[in-house]
Amino acid sequence: MGAWGTSIFSDDNAADLREDYRDLIGNGLSGSEATDRLIEEWQPDGNDGYFVATFWLALALTQWKCGRLEERVKAEKAPRGSRQGAGAASITTAGTDENQATHSVQLRLGAD
After folding, report:
1. Mutual orientation of helices 12-26 and 31-42 as an angle, nearest 10°?
2. For residues 105 and 57, is the Cβ–Cβ distance under 8 A?
3. I want to staple 49 with a disulfide (CB 3.0 to 4.6 A). Which of 23, 82, 85, 89 is the partner?
């Protein structure tokens, strides 16, 4: 697993999560059911701040692009996850392009 660029989806976990969400929706699950399944399978509440931030930002952006952004992901998880511990440091200090990408996602999602 790794990252090959500065966009949110230039990260293997983020790209896999996006694919999993789209597959679940395509298989007939509701947005909420797909989210519940991903949370159960990916368990994004661990000690790895980078993984937690990546999970919630990728899920929120994927939902937003699909026109299915859930309030619980937007309001409770994406803004908090994007600022959490090591994840926030890794995301925001890696470089200007990555910093701008993260800020762009937060603006799209209505985060401060």
Report:
1. 140
2. yes
3. 85
Q: Are 44 and 84 in contact (CB under 8 A)?
A: no
Quick: pLDDT tens for 101-111.
Answer: 555 666 666 65
CA-based nearest residue to 50, from 17, 92, 97: 92
- Tens-digit pLDDT profile for residues 53-106: 889 999 999 999 999 999 999 876 655 545 444 444 444 444 445 455 555 666
Which amino acid is it at 104?
S
The pTM for the full model equals 0.70
| Cβ-proximal residues to 75 (8 Å cutoff; 6+ apart), any chain | none
